[in-house]
Structure formats: structure tokens, C-alpha cells
Amino acid sequence: MTVATSSVVSSEATPPATDFQNSLIKIATFVLPAMANTLIGPTLSMIDTAFVGRGSLVELAALGPAVLIVDVTSYVFSWLGIATVSFIATEISLGNHDEVDRLTRAAMLLGLVCGLGVAVWHTLGATMLLAGISTGPELMGPARTYVMIRAIGFPVQLLNTAMWGVCLGHKDPKTPLFVSLLSLVLNIIGDFVLCSVMGLGIGGAAWATTAAQYISAVVYPISMKLRNKTYLSRLKGPLELKNVTRYAGFA
Prior knowledge:
Shape: globular
Mean pLDDT: 83
Number of strands: 0
Largest sheet: none
Strand content: under 5%
Distance between the termini: 70 Å
Structural class: mainly alpha
């Protein structure tokens, strides 16, 4: 009887998880996957550095200025994902589902257009950009190669940023996390094959990263469909200019 009584008292003395603890758990399960888009760019560049560093020291040194240009440009356009999360979450809370669809179309269009603009700028201005950060002449060739190849991936990179914002706006952090992890795995495999096996060096690393970004852009809608998410399947109808200009405040 004494044992039973003490066990009851003990169970009563152990309180259940508090509301604060539950809130922390909910925040962590949302924030940690959401960080994937922010970290994916620098992580892909780090993987490239690791594989290129096993070969030419000149190419390893050239990755410094080349990666700086690519990663800074990615950071400059982080407003696209942030704005998309804010706009879509706001309209969902108001029940304006048609407006959500229009904003989704606007975000994806902006991602593609801005990405194409960056691709052209990096392709035509790679030498000028590298010279602007005092890249040495011995590093200019491989660094320019990396920047120009990575430029090909910017349209889908910014499209992926827009889709990341769409997912988080719908409180779906799992899709971006899955796509980001897949991109990392594909990049590692690509770097190993192109750099370590085929010996393509810094150019192979750039192609591996670019290919991983394009595959990720294809996997995003497939992953949504398999998980019965209909964010992209409802994208029909005209695109209104006001939905595009709404992003001007974040740019």
C-alpha cells in the first residue's frame, strides 16, 4: 500500500511537458528544416572545395573568389524566399486562396527572370567581377570557369528559392528539407565522379553543383505531388502585375 501510494505521488510530482517546451519543439521542427535553403548554397560550395582541394592547388585557390561571387549573389536574392513566405502565409490566414495561387505564380516567375538575369550577368561579366575583388591573373582562368558554369544554374536556383518560400508559407518544411538533402547527396556523387574519377577539376565541381540544382527543381513538384500537396497543381489563370510589384518592397 505504501509502495502504491508513493508511486502515485511520484507520478503526480512529475509534471507533463509544459506549453513552453511544446512550443520549443514545434519551433525546432519547423525552423531546422527551414534553414536548409539558407545553408544549401554555402554547403554545396564547401563540398566543391573539398573535392577540388584534392587536386590542383591553383584551382583550390581560385575557388575562393569564385565561390565568393556565387554565394554573395545567392544571398542578395534571399529576399525572394523571405517575401514569398510572408505574403503566402498572410493570404492563407485571410482565406484568400486565389491570391495565394497568384502569388505563387509571381514568385516562380520572379525566380526564373532574376535567375536568367544573373546568369547573363555572370557569364558576360565574370572577368570584371573577379577583377573587382582582386583575383590574381594565375587564378582568373579557373575562377572564371567556375563562375560561368555556376551561372547556368541560377535560374533554377532562384526558382528553388521561390518554391522554398511557397512550402514554408504553407507550413511545409519537410519538402524543402528533403530536396536540400537530395541536392547534397547528388552533389557529392557528382563531385566524386567528375573530380575524383574523371579529373575535371574545378569545372567538374561546378557542373556537379549545377546539375544537382536542376534535378532539385524537378524533384520539388514531384515531392509535393507524392505528399498530396497541391501548391503547384492549382497554378492556372493570368498573372496580375500587382502580384509581381508587391515584391518590390523586399528587393
